[in-house]
Amino acid sequence: MSVPDYMQCAEDHQTLLVVVQPVGVVSEENFFRIYKRICSVSQISVRDSQRVLYIRYRHHYPPENNEWGDFQTHRKVVGLVTITDCCSAKEWPQTFEKFHVQKELYGATLYDSRLFVFGLQGEIAEQPRTDVAFYPSYEDCQTVEKRVEDFIESLFIVLESKRLDRATDKSGDKIPLLCVPFEKKDFVGLDTDSRHYKKRCQGRMRKHVGDLCLQAGMLQDSLVHYHMSVELLRSVNDFLWLGAALEGLCSASVIYHYPGGTGGKTGARRFPGSSLAAEAANRHRPGAQEVLIDPGALTTNGINPDTSAEIGRAKNCLSPEDIIDKYKEAISYYGKYKNAGVIELEACVKAVRVLAVQRRSMEASEFLQNAVYINLRQLSEEEKIQRYSVLSELYELIGFRRKSAFFKRVAAMQCVAPSIPEPGWRACYKLLLETLPGYSLSLDPNDFNKGTHRGWAAVQMRLLHELVYASRRMGNPALSVRHLSFLLQTMLDFLSDQEKKDVTQSLESYTSKCPGTMELITLPDGLTLPPVPFTKLPIVRRVNLLNLPASLRPQKMKSLLAQNASTKSPFIYSPIIAHSRGEERSKKIDFQWVQGDVCEVQLMVYNPMPFELRVENMGLLVSGVEFESLPAALSLPAESGLYPVTLVGVPQTTGMITVNGYHTTVFGVFSDCLLDNLPGVKTGGSTVEVIPALPRLQIGTSLPRSAHSLQPPSGDEISTNVSVQLYNGETQQLVIKLENIGMEPLEKLEVTSKILTTKEKLYGDFLSWKLEETLAQFPLQPGKVATFTVNIKVKLEFSCQENVLQDLSDDGISVSGFPLCSPFRQVVRPRVESKPVNPPEGSKPGDSSHVKTLEAILNFKYSGGPGHVEGYYRNLSLGLHVEVEPSVFFTRVSTLPATSTRQCHLLLDVFNSTEHELIVSARSNEELILHASECQRMAIQVDKFNFESFPESPGEKGQFANSKQLEEERQEARGLEINSKLDIRWRIPSLQRTGEASVEGLLNQLILDHVQLAPLQWDVLVDGQPCDSEVAACRVGDPIRLEVRLTNRSPRSVGPFALTVVPFQDHQNGVHNYDLHGAISFVGSSTFYLDAVQPSGQAACLGALLFLYTGDFFLHIRFHEDSTSKELPQSWFCLPSVHVRALEAQA
Amino acid sequence: MAVCVAVIAKENYPLYIRSVPMENELKFHYMVHTSLDVVDEKVSAMGKALVDQRELYLGLLYPTEDYKVYGYVTNSKVKFVMVVDSSNTALRDNEIRSMFRKLHNSYTDVMCNPFYNPGDRIQSRAFDSMVTSMMIQVC
């Protein structure tokens, strides 16, 4: 006996063993079809008794095991069913012969046998035979079950007769010694008459009868026999059989206690009939008691009845605890015999099954531990595998899943042991898969995403490596790639650097043959392997959807936006709405992407590997919108820190786009990583609205690009910066090329400008343009270019105020308005001279020669295509950086009264701050050439201005501005007027540059007063001729009439005035001779009186003079100093001086 | 005397495992892993007993050909498993007990460290050296 049956359980002791075998050529399919049908007849209630017979079918049974049939009768083959194929009558004798041969094999033990013949029809088939059944085909054999039942009944009859035969052996008859095969030689020459020997024979026979009773369904009888047998055998130290008797006792008790069965598979097979079995057991018990009650049944046994068995009827059946104790004892007895290893092993297995039912795992594990050490003869590899698998199953049964996994793995390894010529990689792989739960390993990577991995990493890694290897040897590279990726993904933290290298190398070599996919792999046995995305290669820490660059960012038309906001809610603020919106916003991002434009998503990634990681084909996974992903390839350095990666794509349709994740190809494995499954990823929302396509505008300018970028306060970004260097006062044209580089026609364009706050005061329009010409070229089709011209005019201060004031205050002459006779005086006073004299003054021009900058932004709002219909536009900004170099400076300004009271001289000290020769010209074509850093005075004769004739600033302005502002405004307006009159221009011939110069900023009230036409207009008429700066001629001796006329243009009445005429002579050397009493006489009074003059009224006074000598005389008309005149400004009383030339009286 | 010492978390994953013959580490991993079945069984059997009467020492978990595996479980269900050479007959149950107690004390010290995250692998040097001392005593 060498082949253990690991599937045995205690209940098998009550079964009859029937072997079903094919004879001749029977296809496996057909055989098993019939075999199954036969097997279905596993228990039979014997007619006219309440006993139940259990049958165990085997299609294969080693004959050497049969030899142990006396030891335990359930090991004895008592029935043989042979199945054969026979097509013709000719073959029949041959077939029948084979049947007999087969019968011979188990001949000694067989009670009965049957032959089922399929396919044979005709004469032979019609003969009624008990041992042969004929069926026309495998399909047409309804009576098989019936035949089997009949067969079993015939077996029962034999069994029953044997039982009765053994049980009723007369005590006088010599009881034969039953023995197991290996004992036979031991008993040769033994004294058969000794008491000892007799007892042994009795004990063994009792045990045998017990077995038969058990098989015949007489449980209580068998218990009694077993008990007696134990007593007998114990006394003669027949340990092997004692063990068997104890085991029989245990089996019977187990059958009594656990009618549901202890064997996992067999129990399950019996399950449909379990209610029947239980019923049978219930019915059986009273019957058994009946037997017990009838003492005659025992006394007729012939063997000395052991009365103790009857007394302790309750003791007959072992308690559950006793069962285990007796099993232990039995096993210890078996252990004494090396040849009974199989019996011991099977007993262990049976005990474990019982313990599993009792849920006593600890003891069961002890039995199993013992079973592990039972050394059978050299086992074949297949048997080893079977043994380990069974051990694993049993451990599983008692809930030791780790131990079970361990043995399963050992079994798996045994399948591919190097000593096996044809390693069963498939079986190995299958067994390995079964170990997974034992090692708490699931093949779904999602289970590992939650938190850090906790488990027996070393053990799990080993198992995964084995899975990889087994699947590779199985010739399923896809499977090994999947396992290897799983290993890499989930065990990354536990792999050493060298292991990481090895694993990735082998992964790469596998994937070169079979790339890893994202598909579910389904194994033949139904297990599915979910895909393994490499979320850790590289690790993504942050996902940010990026807005479009500022120049491409779409903006909603204001009016539409307002409308939207108003329709959303009638409340300006409501906490409820804000709350719900906040949640919404957490997913949705409040910027838009544009259909057809490249969108970017930035990932912060890092490489956990100790070597460079090549990530290929990295792209976005999105939903909601048709999206063209543009995959990127990147190479991350070893153990890199956070590394930004930008993934791009183009949305092809409009709607809400959601970025779900990204896909990569690493080591040849494709992965789709969903953001939801990634632990520890920060994302600022993943949903963005895609709006319809808009055109794209590109700007090219005639000016060079600027390195200097503007920092606008509003946060707008400026796409292009241009810079230009200009001299103060210069004007330049900026030509802007507008190119539509998008796919949509550009329909709308609006241009606005913004000058960034600057401290410099700017005169005139800095930027001016005409949009109409450009708009005439619209709509601009894709690829077309339009031009747009902007004039840049820089006009900054040409001086600084303090400088002017200072100069004016020390130049008293100009202010006082003394009548200087020099009509056109050009004071040449080079600055160089004055510099040492007045250092602070000299430093000022140097100071203001500092280059000033002006910055402005040109905003182009444009729209077109479907986006325009939706109300979106784009904004493109052009930054303009202008460096203004000073050209000329007016270091001081003063006025000189001209000879005519209606005119005056404006004296400008012009300083050339450039390094070039510069020509300044004023309104007239007077040109002044200035060398570099030269200062010259320039006098310009101007007509006085009648500012009152200007229209007052419009009423609406006056409403807002206070008086001071009004005053300033008025002053500005005056400055503009003066400037336009002056029209000062400069020219740098060497650079061919020209520009304007403005005095606007220089003019203060004082000067304005001077250049203003006084509201009191004084006219002096000599001899009826208005006299102003010209020489009036008269004759000596003739009285000449002098009339002073006043026209009041001021809004108030003035006067009365008293005027005195003071004549004097100018000696041209600074000496004025006022002592002219002898030379001139007044006709009448030298003092004139003027009455008060109403506004816009006129007054005049008359007098006469008589010149006594010839000569040049001047008349200085002086006001009497009275109170009224003091109220009015001095300049109002600027009377023209009168120059009279007295000539010889005509002869 | 011990050839392998392991600390296993309540959720049955190793917090610490160290064995003396480094070359055959995996064997001890398997050994300790499978011993958990027995520990589980013993603990569940013990669960019925009163808490204060509970014996922390689980005794011999199972013997193998060359080694004996002993177990110990704390009240917070952290398990200590020790593998000793079965040839070393000098080791009595009492000595094993005291070794476990030492291990438990040292483990308590580790847990008292405010910088230790319960559930993480034990990387304490003090604990390590204590385990080393337990292993070296015989070797």
Give a written overview of the molecule.
- The complex is a heterodimer of chains A (1147) and B (139).
- Chain A is built from 34 helices and 46 strands.
- By secondary structure, chain A is of the alpha+beta class.
- In chain A, helix 8 (239-257) runs antiparallel to helix 14 and helix 17 runs antiparallel to helix 18 (401-415).
- The longest helix of chain A is centred in the first third of the chain and has 24 residues, at 144-167.
- In chain B, strands 2-1-5-4-3 form a five-stranded antiparallel sheet.
- Helix content of chain B is 39%, strand content 24%.
- Chain B has 139 residues and is α+β, with helices and mostly antiparallel strands.
- Chain B has a single domain, classed as Beta-Lactamase.
- In chain B, helix 2 packs antiparallel against helix 3 (125-136).
- Chain B is globular.
- Chain A binds chain B through residues 361-362, 365, 369, 395, 399-403, 406, 439-440, 454-456, 458-459, 462, and chain B through 9, 11-14, 25-26, 29-30, 33-34, 36-38, 40-42, 45, 62-63, 119.
- Chain A: Pfam families: Ig_TRAPPC9-Trs120_1st (PF26254), Ig_TRAPPC9-Trs120_2nd (PF26280), Ig_TRAPPC9-Trs120_3rd (PF26282), Ig_TRAPPC9-Trs120_4th (PF26283), TPR_TRAPPC9-Trs120 (PF26251), TRAPPC9-Trs120 (PF08626).
